[in-house]
Amino acid sequence: MTKTTSRLLASALPFALLVGAFIPAEAGQASFVLDVQSGQVLEASNQDDLNYPASLTKMMTLYLAFEALHDGRLTWDQKLTMSENAESKEPFKLAVGAGRKVTLREAVESIVVLSANDSAVAIAEQLGGSEQAFARTMTDKARQLGMKDTVFKNPSGLPDPEQVTTARDMATLGVSLMRDFPEEFKLFSMRRFQFRGMKLRGHNNLMYRYDGVDGIKTGYTDASGYNVVTSALKGGRRVVGVVMGEKTAGLRDDKMAGLLDSTLSSTATAYTTPGSQPGATMTDSQPTK
Fold first, then answer.
1. For 130, which DSSP code?
2. CA angle 225, 227, 229 (to 5 degrees)
3. Which DSSP symbol is given to 56?
4. Contact, 94 vs 80, CB < 8 A?
5. Which of 55, 156, 224, 231 is the catalytic position?
6. 7, 149, 171, 242: most buried, per Cβ within 10 A?
């Protein structure tokens, strides 16, 4: 390497850091389980490694939609227009056609049950004007909630190399939704919904197979692997668990079921690592609005 090249590389690194260079994520396996009331970490593996969120992203889209409902910027019956951009988002969508409208309630329920990409974009465009502007608001809110390693680039979770998160951050978001919007959070327990004469079933299979699970969101892309954030209650203990980067939906669900078995048992104890910080709890005084 020449001296000139060395100098160029040395000057390029701090510049890249200044303009927001990103570290590519991997579909690495990670897991994290948090006791909601106490904030105790009950299980953790690669919890701070960067991964792609896939449709777990929509949890933040819904957080901001619920916030707008509480602020009076949206109403449940408000009509959202499906733009050509929204209509183009494959594969899961309501597919009503560009220029047609859905209510906010229809959009929210379709995201919860079907992970509808067009609905997520419609909400983003209504609140932010564009996906890009809304994504900046998403990232800002993530920082306010304590999600220090998450960057959002779109409201749906469709692939973007700069859209990254961690298992710990996703648990924080799950607890924040539960804490800040307890009534709206109940929507995450929906297993099916009816849309204009069609009866549609969700694909969060843990709600069908594990007693006590009441949400919240699954996700998958080729880059992310199979992800899930799960809320469960048993014996008075409420936990939020995260599994990321599994090879199949079945392996993901089996991993989460095993984590719930171990952390919801009466003998479960807190997991600690040097310098680790608890996640958000139901009683944390964090800026959320």
1. S
2. 170
3. G
4. no
5. 55
6. 242
Cα distance between residue 239 and residue 90, in whole Å = 32
Rg (CA), the chain: 19
Give the C-alpha separation, 259 to 67, whole Å: 31
Query: Is 38 marked active-site?
Result: no
DSSP for residue 247? S
The pTM of this model reads 0.85
One-letter amino acid for residue 127 of the chain: L
d(CA 130, CA 138): 12
Distances (CA, A) of 199 to 7, 95, 116, 162, 238: 63, 15, 15, 36, 31
Torsional sign, CA 262, 267, 268, 274: negative
Q: Which residue has the tokens 């949890």?
A: 59
Closest listed residue to residue 110, CA positions, set 151, 132, 80? 80
Query: Among the options 31, 89, 110, 115, which is catalytic?
Result: 115
Q: What does each C-alpha distance from 26 to 52, 119, 122, 197, 218 come to in angstroms?
A: 7, 27, 29, 41, 18
Report the alpha-carbon angle 90-96-98, nearest 5: 80
Active site residue 224: no
Of 31, 58, 141, 224, the active-site residue reads 58
Q: What is the pLDDT along the chain (289 residues), one digit of tens a residue?
A: 443 333 333 333 333 333 345 566 777 899 999 999 999 999 999 999 999 999 999 999 999 999 999 999 999 999 999 999 999 987 777 877 889 999 999 999 999 999 999 999 999 999 999 999 999 999 999 999 999 999 999 999 999 999 999 999 999 999 999 999 999 999 999 988 787 777 778 879 999 999 999 999 999 999 999 999 999 999 899 999 999 999 999 999 999 999 999 999 855 565 554 444 444 544 333 332 3
